[in-house]
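CORE FACILITY INTAKE
Project code: CF-77B
Contact: R.S. (postdoc)
Sample description: multi-component assembly, two entities in total
Requested service: structural model of the whole complex
Turnaround: standard
Below are the sequence entries exactly as provided by the requester. Do not edit them.
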Amino acid sequence: DAGVTQSPTHLIKTRGQHVTLRCSPISGHKSVSWYQQVLGQGPQFIFQYYEKEERGRGNFPDRFSARQFPNYSSELNVNALLLGDSALYLCASSLGQGDGNQPQHFGDGTRLSIL
Amino acid sequence: AQSVSQHNHHVILSEAASLELGCNYSYGGTVNLFWYVQYPGQHLQLLLKYFSGDPLVKGIKGFEAEFIKSKFSFNLRKPSVQWSDTAEYFCAVNGGTGRRALTFGSGTRLQVQP
């Protein structure tokens, strides 16, 4: 079975631009989460979605938004990019209702570089 | 708020040495605990998880971890490491039902020398 797939793999943007990152969960998984991993740190939670509804939001500014589609894929949007947004963006999916005890399965991530 | 501390940022071991990586968390309620591993060039993979029951959990590739509630700890162990265990290891926690987001530690980079 295919794992979590993310696109694009790498992306270079300039300050002030907008970016959209995409994620397809493992087949049958209905919950998708987004994390930001800055170099040298652990991933930080941004959003979680289940059945197209936001179920959790981390401590990120309103420039970050996300949505989940009927096929359970998801997009993460970041507006007005800043240098500090340079990071690896990870998507994770989990089975069932996205309850706390379901392990999350991660994709390879999108490496975003802001110039 | 939850937080996770991993005490060792970089560990260098020789093959066959024993491994213990520390992880402490701060959260007063019921928690689910995880160790993830990231091999060079690969995505995060689940090593093992603790939800309830036996506090000694076994994972893949000979790894195990012990949940000590009184110490808020979930240390990862392996009796004899191999060169192929070279990777970054992350401890993570979520606060049980209703708290679905994972809080990660900053990671420990393990380097195993042949």
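Facility notes:
- Chain A touches chain B through 28 residues (CB under 8 Å).
- Chain A has no helices and eleven strands.
Invoice: internal transfer
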